[in-house]
Amino acid sequence: MISTEQFRAMRSTQQQSMLSVAAIERRSLTSDGQGGQTAAYTTVANGVQCRLAQQSGHGTGTGSETRSADAIRAVTSWVLTVPHGTDLQQADRVRVDGVAYEVAILISTDHATAVRARLSRS
């Protein structure tokens, strides 16, 4: 079994490879006064150490394609890694180097040394 001290050391090593900085934004919905809702984002964390890696697509090397309204649209995904314990939720928006990404899926493991998520930007 891995001790708490060993986990701390592994988390520290993982964090040393996070050379970028992110801002995490959380979406909230407010009434638009006409029966609908408007989405707004609030920054919940700034200066979060991170690592962002572009994910290869299925044989394309850069992403994948989807069909939307009779048009083909390129979709690229990334994997974001942030320190263990970071409050990151599905549907959050993450800004790295001024570029906004949407958290599509949280990737979790039983003994995580970091928080990982698959991001999209289309």
Describe this structure as you would to a colleague.
The chain has 122 residues and is mostly beta strands. The chain has one domain (4-121): Beta Barrel (Thrombin, subunit H). The chain is 11% helix and 57% strand. It has a 6-stranded antiparallel barrel with strand order 1-2-4-7-6-5. A hairpin with a 2-residue loop joins strand 3 (64-68) and strand 4 (71-83). Residues 58-63 have low confidence and may be disordered.
Map the helices and strands:
Blueprint (H helix, E strand, L loop, with lengths): L3 H13 L3 E12 L5 E19 L8 E5 L2 E13 L9 E4 L2 E9 L6 E8 L1
From the alpha carbons, calculate the radius of gyration and give it in angstroms.
17 Å
* Number of separate helices: 1
The name of the CATH topology is Thrombin, subunit H
Low-confidence stretches: 58-63
- Overall morphology: globular
**Average pLDDT for all residues:** 86
The CATH homologous superfamily: Protein of unknown function DUF3599
| Helical content class | 10-25%
Describe the structure in brief.
The chain has one helix at residues 4-16; strands at 20-31, 37-55, 64-68, 71-83, 93-96, 99-107, 114-121. The chain is mainly beta.
Keywords:
single chain; 122 residues; mainly beta; Thrombin, subunit H; 6-stranded antiparallel β-barrel; 11% helix; globular
